[in-house]
Amino acid sequence: MMRSIVDTEKLLQFEDPEPVGVLNGNSASDFLLSCEHAGNAVPAVLNGLGLGAGALNQHIAIDIGILGVSEVISGLIGAPLVFQRYSRLVAECNRRVESDQVIPCISDGTVIPGNQALSKVARMRRIEEIVLPYHQEIAGRLNRSRDDGAETIFVSMHSFTPSLNSAPASRPWHVGLCTGPDERFSRHVETALRAEVGVIVGFNEPYNVDMTEEYAIPIHAEARQLPYCQLEIRQDLIKSDAGQIEWGRRVACALEKARNTFFAELRES
Questions:
Q1: Could you tell me the pTM of the whole model?
Q2: Which residue from 115, 143, 155, 232 has the highest number of Cβ atoms inside 10 Å of its Cβ?
Q3: Which CATH number fits domain 5-268: 3.30.450.40, 3.40.630.40, 3.40.50.20, 3.40.80.10?
């Protein structure tokens, strides 16, 4: 019989994966890559949140294709990659922990049964065991780089659905760059990507960074005054291995070009 959450002192049990994944963790690099919505795992005691496997493979549960792209980039530029294994439907790692959106009750028109009327204890278990370890891993790495006198370029990797169910409309961009107030590094990445023939680049499309609700860019980058970019790649372009390799190579090249032009600009200023 499946255990109930009320029968356990912890959310994550022996059979559940660790929330935080790290690739190339010992690499020395100007870049740190993060992937907040890399996985779609659900703790066993949550019984799939009352959803079928089909729903957990859709964009409401996971940024489709982005982990594969991020792994390619990490390998090509030798950058550490920190990624979250659990679905954003379990706990949204790109929202402030005090936000109502950190555990969504509805996502793009789909009701999430396992997230309805959660107790404070159940909510805090998800935050403490899934969200906080992820951000502590990132913060620890940024702190160590700072203490070593290195300036890290923070890159948050995401993907977006070609059309939302709740607001159907064409999203023509192949890739979007999303920023808060500091657009410095993102503009250099934009220039590098626009140099690619046929690539449609959006700036603050399909999203911008919500500085009051989101976590990764506001806390890890803007608050530290680090150069950064948040990339959104359209999911139909990266659902296959070939697409992930193509876009991984494209973004890796753009990031390296942007790093060079960004630091050259700083030296000249």
A1: 0.94
A2: 155
A3: 3.40.630.40
